[in-house]
Design goal:
The structure holds two protein chains of two kinds. By secondary structure, chain A is mostly helical. Chain A is 53% helix and 8% strand. Chain B has eleven helices and four strands. At the A-B interface, strand 2, strand 3, strand 4, helix 5 and strand 5 of A face helix 3, helix 5, helix 9, strand 3 and strand 4 of B.
Chain lengths: 328, 199
């Protein structure tokens, strides 16, 4: 079986070498040549699955290996066996000239990575992940982070993020327990289903843009009454809370500053492997950023807007000299 | 030998004894940053999760490197933008890093090359899962709310792109860039040149 596997590897490498030679010096990639090579690779590489299955059966019956080692190898082979089916389906569609809609595989070793069609219009599409954050706009304190597999719509991040914040609020022991009054976001979050879910939880959505026009930061009393009636929250939320929600509406510069801080703490390029690794890296970057934000609040290094919000929300004003006692 | 290399030498060193908290100024950024974390809750959560998922079959053997130290190192790595090797090296020489890692007193030999090996940090990281990460974030947020530092009343949601690994420049990207460059450097059309001359 080892000889068979080596022969197969050699044949596949030979096909790829030939493809490289034919393209060299041409300054372009020939579509017909790509399709031709793809077909050859699929035909010649078909015994891979059979060999992997045989190897898996042998590993399971190998008594000289330790139980842990056997389990690890079987798991690795099971994961590897799932990959060819996905890759073959994608390759066959491409060789037939059909476009792929969603969930393209860009890395054979990690199918959770997806193309990021976001943020840049002047360069080739990057591939990676799209973390979502839920933060306090005044200070930039991040409450939770969401890192789904692939590249789903932005609206699908809202409910899981709100759930995570509510889980965090369950850890708070002080009374009264704080609640979420409003959620803001850009036009990508403008989804009626998301709005309905948030309204049913007593959360205002006036900060989520409906059009490209900027949100009004100070609506009239009539407009406030209309917003409360539309959301069906006349009993749950006060006009003052609506005013604050409008003032804390989506602002690109505010969000950009939070994202820039995260990118500076290593969230720009994920070097830890796999979905779990990416989650650990982004999570640690968020923890470090949040600690820096609390440090900034303690030192009173905040913008005028943040100061105003904190006053309206009746949050504590920390003095710099409160740092005298070590908390270690 | 492998176990000995992981030993926490600062507890048994013979060098000069230094009280870390007395040495690091209260205004030092790393000290202030480290003081914001609810360490007790975070360490308890990590230890609880590890004990459930990776139970120790026996109590024999040397005690592992403290969770407080490796957790702080992982966080400092992101805050100071270091590699595993760099942050482990800083722990040996930088008293502010020692303070952030919860080391109260240090008594190391000059010959001692390291306190924590980068491999230990990588091993610790490999044990963290999604549920634990979420719990750590929730605990930090809850601590800040309890202190009255922040309020979850009004929130904003957004996403940002994050590249995976070092993205190799492939043929398609090279050709795309080359095309853009050539279009920029192409000579102006006769009509544009004429209008420019009139000006």
């Amino acid at each position: 079986m080892k000889a068979q596997a080596q022969q197969l590897q050699h044949d596949l490498a030979k096909i790829m070498r030939r493809f490289g030679r034919q393209c060299r010096g041409q300054s372009k990639v020939f579509v017909s040549l790509v399709r031709q090579t793809e077909t050859q690779l699929l035909t010649n590489g078909s015994p891979v699955v059979g060999l992997a299955r045989a190897a898996q059966a042998q590993v399971q019956s190998a008594t000289h290996l330790a139980e842990e080692q056997r389990t690890r190898l079987v798991t690795q082979l099971t994961v590897a066996l799932a990959a060819p089916a996905q890759i073959t389906t994608q390759s066959r569609r491409l060789t037939q000239g059909k476009s792929l809609s969603q969930c393209k595989i860009v890395n054979a070793y990690d199918p959770t990575i997806a193309p990021i069609c976001k943020g840049k219009s002047n360069c080739p599409t990057q591939f990676g992940r799209k973390p979502g954050i839920i933060a306090e706009p005044a200070t930039g304190f991040i409450f939770a982070v969401q890192l789904p597999v692939g590249n789903p719509s932005d609206a699908s991040y809202v409910v899981p993020l709100v759930d995570k914040v509510q889980t965090a609020l369950a850890h708070v022991t002080t009374r009264p327990t704080p609640a979420i009054h409003s959620v803001a976001g850009d036009l990508a979050l403008n989804d009626p289903t998301v709005r309905d879910i948030l309204h049913s939880r007593g959360i205002l959505t006036v900060g989520i843009s409906r059009t490209v026009a900027p949100l009004s930061p100070s609506p009239s009393p009539e407009e406030i009454r209309q917003m409360l009636t539309e959301a069906g929250l006349t009993q749950k939320r006060t006009p003052h809370q609506v005013q604050l929600a409008c003032a804390a509406g989506y602002s690109r510069p505010v969000v950009e500053s939070i994202i820039a801080s995260l990118l500076g703490r290593g969230a720009a390029r994920l070097t830890y492997k796999g979905q779990r690794g990416a989650l650990v890296q982004v999570g640690m970057a968020v923890l470090a950023h949040t600690a820096a934000t609390v440090q900034r609040i303690h030192q009173d290094r905040l913008s005028k807007r943040a100061h105003k919000f904190r006053r309206l929300l009746r949050l504590k004003h920390h003095k710099t000299n409160e740092f005298k006692v070590s908390k270690n | 030998m492998r176990l000995l290399r992981h030993l926490q030498h600062w507890l048994t060193g013979h060098g000069l004894q230094i009280a870390v908290a007395d040495f690091v100024p209260e205004t030092h950024p790393i000290r202030q940053w480290a003081d914001t974390f609810p360490w007790t809750a975070l360490v308890a959560a990590v230890e609880r999760s590890f004990a459930q998922r990776f139970p120790t079959p026996t109590a024999r053997g040397r005690a592992p490197v403290a969770t407080r130290v490796v957790l702080a190192l992982e966080l400092l790595k992101h805050e100071l933008h270091c590699s595993d090797e760099q942050i482990c090296s800083q722990l040996r020489t930088d008293l502010a890093v020692m303070y952030a890692c919860g080391v109260t007193e240090v008594q190391a030999d000059r010959a001692q090359g390291h306190f924590v090996l980068p491999e230990v940090l990588a091993q610790f990281r490999s044990r963290i899962d999604a549920a634990l990460m979420e719990e750590l974030l929730a605990l930090q947020a809850a601590a800040a709310i309890e202190q009255g530092v922040v309020s979850p009343a009004h929130l904003v949601v957004d996403t940002f792109p994050s590249e995976q690994g070092s993205q190799r420049v492939n043929d398609a990207a090279t050709l795309y860039k080359a095309k853009k460059k050539s279009s920029r450097s192409s000579p102006p059309s006769p009509s544009t040149a004429r209008s420019g001359a009139r000006r």
